[in-house]
Amino acid sequence: xxxxLLEKMMIATMGIFLLGGLFSFLFGKTxxxxxxxxxxxxxxxxxxxxxxALGFLISQTSFTIQFFTSLPFPxxxxxxxxxxxxxxLIFLVSLSIGLYSLGxxxxxxxxYHLGVFGFKLNLLLLSMVFLVCSGDGVTFLMAWESMTLxxxxxxxxxxxxxxxxxAGNLFLVISHIGTAFIFISFLALFSFSGSMGxxxxxxxxxxxxxxxxxxxxxxxxxxxxxxxxxxPFHIWLPVAHPAAPSNISSLMSGIIIKMGIYGFARxxxxxxxxxxxxxxxxxxxxxxxxxxxxVMYALMEHDLKRLLAxxxxxxxxxxxxxxxxALIFKTHGLTSLSALAFLAxxxxxxxxxxxxxxxFLGAGAVVSAVHSRxxxxxxxxxxxxPTTAFFFLIGSLSIxxxxxxxxxxxxxxxxxxxxxxxxxxxxxxxxxxxxxxxxLALTGALAAACFVKAFGLTFLAxxxxxxxxxxKEAPISMKLGMGILxxxxxxxxxxxxxxxxxxxxxxxxxxxxxxxxxITSSGGWMIVPVYQGFSSLSPGVxxxxxxxxxxxxxxxxxxxxxxxxxxxxETWACGIHELTPKMEYTPTGFSNAFRQIFxxxxxxxxxxxxxxxxxxxxxxxxxxxxxxxxxxxxYLYKPLLSYFLxxxxxxxxxxxxxxxxxxxxxxxxxxxxxxxxxVSF
Amino acid sequence: MGIILILGKMVIVFGGAPLLSGIIxxxxxxxxxxxxxxxxQPYFDLAKRFQKDMVISKxxxxxxxxxxxIVFSSMATASLLVPVFSTTLPLGxxxxxxxxxxxxxxxxxxxxxxxxxxxxxxxGMGSSREMVISAxxxxxxxxxxxxxxxxxGTISLGPAMxxxxxxxxxxxxxxxVLAFGALFxxxxxETGRIPVxxxxxxxELTMIHEGMLLExxxxxxxxxxxxxxxxxxxxxxxxxxxxxxxxxxxxxxxSEIGVPIVFFLAKIFFLALIISVVESSLAKLRFFRVPExxxxxxxxxxxxxxxxxxxxx
Amino acid sequence: MDISDPILASKITNLLGATILTTTFLVVGYxxxxxxxxxxxxxxxxxxCVAAEVGFFTGFVHLYIAALLTIVIKVIIIPRVLNRIIERxxxxxxxxxxxxxxxxxLISGGLAILAYFVTQPIAGLGSLITRxxxxxxxxxxxxxxxxxxxxxxxxxxxxxxxTLENGLFLGAIATTYGMPLIVEIGVFFDVLxxxxxxxxxxxxxxxxxxxxxxxxxxxxxx
Amino acid sequence: xxxxxxxxxLFITVLCGIFRSQQKLEAVNFLGAGGILFLGLNLVGEVYQxxxxxxxxGLLRVDALGAFLVLVISIITxxxxxxxxxxxxxxxxxxxxGIRRMRRYYFLLHTxxxxxxxxxxxxxxxxxxxxxxxxxxxSAGLVGLRSEREPLEAAWKYMIICSVGIAIGLFGTxxxxxxxxxxxxxxxDALNWSTLASISHQLDPKVxxxxxxFIVIGYGTKVGLAPMHTWLPDAHSQAPSPISGLLSGVLLxxxxxxxxxxxxxxxxxxxxxxxxxxxxxxxxxxxxxxAFFLIIQKDFKRMLAYSSVEHMGIIAVGLSFSVPxxxxxxxxxxxxxxxxKSMMFFAAGNIVLRYGTKEIEKVKGxxxxxxxxxxxxxxxxxxxxxxxxxxxxxxxxxxxxAGFSSGKMISxxxxxxxxxxxxxSILYYVNAMTFGVPPSGIQKGELSxxxxxxxxxxxxxxxxxxxxxxxxxxxxxxxxxxxxxxx
Lengths: 681, 313, 222, 487
What we know:
By secondary structure, chain A is mainly alpha-helical. Chain A is about 70% helix and about 5% strand.
């Protein structure tokens, strides 16, 4: 009964996306109509879908349909717990993105074809629904690649900007290479199971030879890692995410890279069964690297959106730290610990979707107000766009994992699962896990630093450029979009029980552990990771204390210190009368200390140009310009590319245009064949 | 009952914190063969600042006004997670050492933001460097926590200290000592003391914590400083009770509260002594040398971890 | 003597085959285009002889027809056409070959040997009076192709192609006393049309490139 | 039925030869397109019901395989003729093409179509050869239609190399005949494919080995298998775009069909091992060759041509796996490639006429200038490089699945590697062409509704077959697979 209802709702949701896309395509080329149609279909679809996903998760139902059976491989559409959870994630973010787009896309009217934009946006969501609900390899690949193509088209929306065109291309190519690896895994699995269905993969996987298993594992790692932006497969991410329109950036960083995580969750925890310990170890290693390097590069950025993009890499790293630990525990048979780590990873996935979505929306609002992504030009925006600033602050607090927001809970959980590695019987894990714990700690602190920078230098103090002076607050719909996510950030931070409850089913049917009962007590108000008395957390209580102290302080101030007056004054600037923006600390300045300390990672280069009349020591103007080196690109990708190009150049001589040469090839082939035959006879 | 305990705890922490810094000042003065200010000077300062009006930079926003409160209250919250006399905490369940670390981080975050608020270079540099140091301290601290977790089997502070206390002489093992060293360095860095930062300086170009507080005045400044002292107090207590976990009362029992208090004061004094010795015998490090110090602490905690496994086999 | 004696027949065939091979070497050897065309004419004529001879001994009528067609098309029409071209264009002889004549001859010899070895295992099949010609035909084909590679003049490339086709035709006779008639006719038709089209192209090339030197045609690369 | 089709096509050709005026020729062109489509589909339907039909005492015969080819031919010729209408008109419009050339164009076009049809329906391998040679002759005229240097050069190379190749192919045919004559004796049907297939197991293996070598090299030249592919990029890039479409879409398929026929016989004579390995070698060679030449392409029509080389390679590899799944994939791929490739060439034709260049650098902002063509070109490129959700993905998937499950891991991986490399390079260029700011002074808008229509018709196939293969087509392909895998 309920199941069939949910099924109908599901189909209705997809119908809305499809129709909404078509309508926005058909009605109105560039005008407001298509903008409204496109956005509203996203809103409605997401709203309905959100309900559906919640329904699935709470009623713990699932279903499967087959269609297009005339193809060599029939399509399977099946919704299980993991699918429902990711549907929940997708729709939660897309809902607010829809609201946001309503106002955001106004500036695109007339410039770009909004009808097509809406079409692509809706279809993108549809493809993601198909992706998380696909029950076999072919459907998966279809949805996967459609998603890639559509997001590629969306990234290069601003076709007149070379940057976004290049970004789109890079994104497409790298993702496709990633897809090829997933493809290999599927084919390898297919060659044993004789079918593309995931369930058949699962049932036959244990009989596969270790070599092929490892092949499958590695290929999945590369494939999904590319989509998720795991270092060293990440290079497209910091290029593509900033180049896209901000609502799309938010979509990509919030949702699309999570599809890689979905792949990991689906295959490493369900299909591939239990693997050797080094699987988890490898993932843990890459994850730690991604986390640290991601945030380090983020710290060096003063392009607001690129900064956020690098943070996506970092957070993917954090998520995968959880997953890697889970795999290690799984190998050693510590099921409930593994479940804990897995849960932590998924929790962080959800959180990252929410706050990164929020942050990108905020950044979008700022960028479209300031008409620049360069933080050097910003500052003082908190006075001009207070609401945006407030929401961005909440986002920053969440991503820096500060209580009482959601990021804190998931990172806390991940720390718990790392610390509980003391239960590991033996093996590398016992050293590797603490080390990645240290990495994670470093990451957390750097993230905080980075968001002090991001928020402080964007919103506080004085504006550093005239166009920032004229910045206007975002329209209501955009505020609403951000507001929802900000709210969610807080809620997921205070009521972890709810999220854990949602995830209960997922963990249950992958690991057979009732995680909700395992790690929560007093009705979800308190988290007690697996072992009683190891540690416990009750964010609600913490918040209560915090708030009551705050309240007390306010009361004290109101009652006893009412008479003390507060006067506004000029900032003390070593005696200079008026403080000018030139004297402010800049993003570059803020990150300088880090650049110095980690110089062997950044390999910073800078030059200082002196514009002065003769004699040279009379200086009118100093120009500072610096850049850092991205190691992976420098040492991995550039050489590879040039290598292939070289081969291409070399091979050109074959097609030299001389007919004699061509005939000679023919002749030689023939002669060679004849000789071969005479020998073989 | 619970409420009283909670309030009592806060009173102890925030009441004791200025005294502690007073003690350290006094000891330092003695080492420098000065008479030095009275032990209670910090209280007078606080009182004076609460009396004064506030002057706030016109570039600041609500965050600047809000910061002292959030910093103070996060310290207050943190104080409830740290056992002082007794290993049973009324609200101990609500968080563990990780939560503690992140409450400090919350305070730091806002402090750094308010450092940037006024737009002066001092504040900017202060917050930048504060974040750097915390970032470098964090990994060492985490590994130290790991080794604590390993030796005690838990990371909620109450139980941890209890188990450690019950270990008796087993506690005297290399892992424990190394971890102590590591965490001590971290504490110095976190509380902004020499050789990392100089708490008694103003308007020195290299100041870090003071740099961020530069624009505060009146009650704002008072709250910030008070919170800073509380943080220092908490760290000292943490060190004392984790690594010298003797004389901690298993649960609150006012009849025999005496012993714990005595032990407690002894520990505090001892650590204060160490700090003042360090402060008066070392010069402040160049900022870009600080990483080496914290690196050393990281290595110490890593060794602690390894030795633990080696000893445990 | 008994004219239907297979031994005699195969002797004659072999003799003719040998001559054909030698004529092919003539084509390789000559540098003067006219001479090449002449050699080709002779080549085709001998081919016709083989066809007729085999037809005579086996009594397959369609071989006579084939022989007739060969005479008409390959001995009369095509050489005429080619010669007219040679008169039109200013080039009279192959100036620079990719491989000089002596070594070409040697290589051609090598090809002939290869052909012989290739056909050894299969020539045993059946007891046709012409079976040894199979080797000859393959040799001629390879040599024809070789000519096309070494010669730079468009015209001599056509000659090479035609030689190759002769080898093919010889092969058809050698193995199976010729293809079914309709196929034969079709093939002849194709060859004729093909040559005509090539000639047309040659004229246009001569207009556009002011030469028939195929080394010059190298715009299209990569 | 067969004869009707052939005679109709011949009749159209004759009409094209007779008529002089543009209107009449265009009318005839449409008539021919429609008629061939109609009759072709009828023929396919008939074969679909009663598995094979033959005419002229078995000289002509159409079984599922032939019908499949006829299907491809009639669809592509239809769209190509429609496209030609728009294309030729606009060429006449901007004076690139005189009225005389237009006459020659239509005449040769329909001759070409006739010869292609002949290939598909001929049962006698000799006739098959003649037909294929005839296609060369007809299409060479079309390639060299514009008498400038490049087209002439291309046509010359095309003529010479393909004639040589075909001649070698004929020798293969002769040898086949030889081996069959030894069993059947001198009889006209000793060269009929149906007879040969039925007695294939008795044929002398050695002769067949030699024969198949000659066939693969000979017809392979026409298919464009490396290293005999050298003529292909020249011819396909220099021909008028509708013709390029036909060449890439249909002609290559026809040549491949020729190989297939012999492949079946050879497999019967000496098992799959030897012919498969030959096909595999040449297939992989083509793939690799195409992959590396695509990296450094500067001319987008050549790019498409090389992509054809690639796809023929894929088909060959698919066949070489010699398992039903692989064969199915290969056949499906043949169909899809025909659709996608002709579509791409049509789009390319529009671009050439609008921008007046074949150079990739000079084309920018296609999506803005010609929205439909731009979209088609981009999506087509994606489809052509085998990315979901387009039809070629399904066929490549099938082929690869066959490869993996038949244990040909390495060659499958090589195939996949090449495909990905090709995707990267092609999309790099196509992306640059589609987006960006268009060069100034080029008028906006599509070329003509005819050319757009033609592209969209192919697009429909490419799109739909990615999700859904109609039951009849599916069964037809399965019949083909049965014929090829000889069960």
